[in-house]
Amino acid sequence: MAKWTFLTNHALVLSYLATTHKITARELSLTIGITERAVRKVIADLADARYIRKKKRADTSGTVFTLICRSVITHTVKSPSGTF
Q1: Per DSSP, what are the bridge partners of residue 63?
Q2: Would the pTM of this model clear 0.85, i.e. be above it?
Q3: Which side of the chain, N or C, has fewer Cβ within a 10 Å radius?
Q4: In whole angstroms, how far apart are CA 28 and each of 49, 78, 80?
Q5: Full set of structural domains in the chain with CATH
Q6: SS3 sequence, the chain?
Q7: Whole-angstrom Cα distance, residue 46 to residue 30?
Q8: Which of 67, 63, 75 is nearest to 26 (CA)?
Q9: How far are the Cα atoms of 15, 27, 28, 53, 55 from residue 60, in angstroms, in the given order?
């Protein structure tokens, strides 16, 4: 039987970034179970869509991620009445 979950990779990465302030893309990939490259692509997608903001830390080679709370999470599927 195929393994599946309700949450997409984007939702998982966003969730971990919201709750874990010090995590690398490598650690995140091992935690979620996807490649580091996939994590970096998801982070780029989230930043492009303005769900998160990336900022390089001056004191280390790390990156700080800030969630942008005013963003609205959207979905293209609507109920028959036109609302969700």
Answers
A1: 56
A2: no
A3: N
A4: 20, 32, 38
A5: 9-67 (1.10.10.10)
A6: CCCCCCCCHHHHHHHHHHHCCCCCHHHHHHHHCCCHHHHHHHHHHHHHCCCEEEEECCCCCCEEEEECCCCCCCCCCCCCCCCC
A7: 19
A8: 63
A9: 24, 17, 18, 18, 12
CA angle 7, 13, 18 (to 5 degrees): 110
**Could you tell me the two tokens for 1?**
């039987």
Split the chain (84 residues) into runs of 10 and give each run's mean pLDDT. 81 89 87 95 92 78 73 59 54
Q: How far is CA 68 from the centre of its chain?
A: 12
**Residue pointed to by tokens 């709750």:** 19
